[in-house]
Amino acid sequence: MKLKKEQISNIIWIVAILVLLFTPIGFHAKVWVNRIISFTPNVIANEAQQKLEDYQFILEDMDGNAINFDNFSDEVLVVNFWATWCPPCVAEMPEMAALHNAYGDTVRFAFIANDKPEKVKRY
Q1: Could you tell me which CATH number the domain at 43-123 has?
Q2: How large is the greatest C-alpha to C-alpha distance in the chain, in angstroms?
Q3: Where are the domains of the chain?
Q4: Predicted TM-score (pTM) of this structure
Q5: Which residues contact 43 (CB under 8 A, 6 or more apart)?
Q6: For the chain, first and last CA: distance in Å?
Q7: Backbone phi and psi for residue 60, each to the nearest 5 degrees, phi listed first
Q8: Residues 45-54: pLDDT tens digits?
Q9: Membrane-spanning regions, if any (predicted)?
């Protein structure tokens, strides 16, 4: 029994979809697609400034030390909530690293993840 071209095409598409959904290749493909389709928003220079009065937000760093956000009340702080399993989050990491390299002396960065430390350290 010979397969028709349409059947072969359908089988190829099904295999490709399964590979993208259920293998690590799929995760990296999603990251790549998100990098391509994501955009960088324009910065508005004259945006209204708001001052937060309550900084009682305490988290642990990668070494298990308690970090109180009240310590950064007089500094510019960029807070990024992300996850290792989130393709858009992983896709934005090179841009966040570039921001850190450009503004690391004047701006503090806090990357908050609810993953295991050994997974987070890879990024």
Answers
A1: 3.40.30.10
A2: 75
A3: 1-37, 43-123
A4: 0.54
A5: none
A6: 50
A7: -100, 145
A8: 666 666 666 6
A9: 12-33
